[in-house]
Amino acid sequence: MSLTTPALATVTAGEPVTAQGWNAIVNGLTALYEAVIALGGATLDVSVSRATTGGTEPVPDAVVVAEPLGEGRPVRALPPFGTRTTFLLVGLTDGPWRIHVQAEGMSAQAKDVTLPSADPVTITLTADGVVVPDLFGVSLQGALDQVRALGIDADIVLDTTGREVSRTAVPAEYVDAPVLLQLPSAGTVVPTGTGRVRLAVASALRRDPVVTMPSIIGLTLAEAQQALESIGLHLGTTDLRDAGPAA
Question: Are the folds of 40-125 and 130-201 the same?
Answer without folding.
Answer: no
